[in-house]
Every structure is written in structure tokens, then in C-alpha cells.
Amino acid sequence: MLSKVVIPVAGLGTRVLPASKAIPKEMLTVVDKPVIQHVVEEAIAAGFRQIILVTRSGKQAIEDHFDHHYELEAELARKGKTALLESIRDVLPADAEVISVRQPKALGLGHAVLCAAPVVGDDDFAVMLPDMLIDNHNSSRDMSNMVEAFNASGLGQIMVEGVPEDQVQRYGIVDCKGVAVNLGESADIAGMVEKPSPTEAPSNLAIVGRYILPASVMTLLKNTPPGAGDEIQLTDALQTLLSETGLQAYSMAGKLYDCGNKAGLLQANVAFGLQHPETADELRAFLKTL
After folding, report:
1. Mean pLDDT of 169-192
2. Domain residue limits, the chain
3. How many angstroms from the chain centroid is the CA of residue 280?
4. Domain covering 4-289: architecture
5. What pLDDT shows up at residue 170?
6. Is the entire prediction scored with pTM above 0.70?
7. Cα distance between residue 6 and residue 24, in whole Å
């Protein structure tokens, strides 16, 4: 049963500077919650209960956010602010836990995932990038669907989203041999290409930061030599996995926001703000004045 998810949070957040100079980029807020909480809630909703943060120095605020703040809780209780008290007490359900491991050097996404190997052990696991926020407000839960697809097929799942053809060079692109992948469904992957030119791209299906992987990936990562940027790339290990057992692309049904850049963070705040009961009406009225 899938229960462990690896979330790499050791990045510097250079795309959102100066906001991330003293605050972890994962703690920047979308409406009233930090981005990392939205991502953890997505994992919890899909059934994951061990949240493994791959972190570094300067990221303690993330760990603190998922811990109890007894003084604040006592003050809110004293003032009778029950709703606020519940909002900070219910950051994690009682049966979930956050575990932190260190990535001593920034040696790539594959290396970050590998740092979680002692905790993952021999279990299958998920990887979720904290920059990528998925809005499933008007659709099914994508991570839950990916879990079902993994359990049904036994094949690793990589979440993809169709992007404009003139933007494929920004992403890793999967090749499904021309098969149209319906939203909320999976299809076999024939190959993967990292940041191809529009003329070389086999499709417009871009990898968007959600993976469900077999335990064997950790062994593959241990044997993966440094690649692009002299870093251990997760994509290189997945290429090996593809050749050995196969992989599937899961086409997300929700809407993706890249909160690792300023425009994406602003867009997420508008989208989620229009759904939040405390902000929706005023924000909608404000947007009409622009």
C-alpha cells in the first residue's frame, strides 16, 4: 500500500527572490496557507501518511509549520477563536507524520530523492515537487487517480499536462507514440525527451512534478552517474526504468500553477482566492474594477 511521499524542499527559490531571501519559497502563501501545506494536503487526500521532506539548513520554518505551536493555540483558545484554532491544529491528521532528511549538497532532483532512501526503504513511493500546485476544484483528484493507475498496472506513473507547442522546450516531454491520453487516464510511455525544440518534440505532454514510483527506483538512482549540470537526474533513472519495466503517463485533469515563479504564484492566489469563502466575493469585485 502506498503511504510514503518524498517532497524535495532544499531548493534556493531564486525565481521568487527577494521574497525567498529569508523565507523558504515553500512557505510563500496561496491565500491563507503556505504552498507546502497545499501540496501536503493533496498528498494526504490521496492516502499518503508519511511525508518525507528532503531539506537543508535555513528551512526550519517548514518543519515548524507542521509542528504544534502551544503558545498560539493556548492564546486562541483563551480568546474563543475556535475556527482559527482548528485551522492550525488540523494542519496534519492524527495518523500522518512529517519526517525530515537532509540533502547536504544540491546535486539534482535525483540526488534529493535518493537522500530519502533510508526512510523509503523497500516501499513504493510518490514524489511531489512543492513548486507545482494543482487545483482540482472542478475535477477529480489527480493524485488519487494516479494511485489507482499504479495499483492497477504495476507501472510507475508520471503526471503530464498538455502545453502549448512553443513552450515544450521548457519541460521534459513524454512520447506516447501518438496516443491521445484522456484527462484523468494513463497511457504507456515510449520515450522521454528533456527540453526538446518544438520541431523535435514527440508530443506536447510535459512532465509536471508528480510521480508514483516503484521501490526499485532508489537502486537505479544509486547507480545513476551525474548527468546534466553534473547532477544526478531523476529523469536518467526513469529512462532506465522505462527500458526495464515500462512507465505510464497520467494526464492531469486539474489546473497546474507553477508557484516557483512570481507569475505562477500570483495566478494561484487569484484562482484559489476566488474559491475561498472568506475572499471570493471581495476579490471578484476587485478584479472587475481593473
Report:
1. 88
2. 4-289
3. 25
4. Alpha-Beta Complex (3.90)
5. 83
6. yes
7. 17
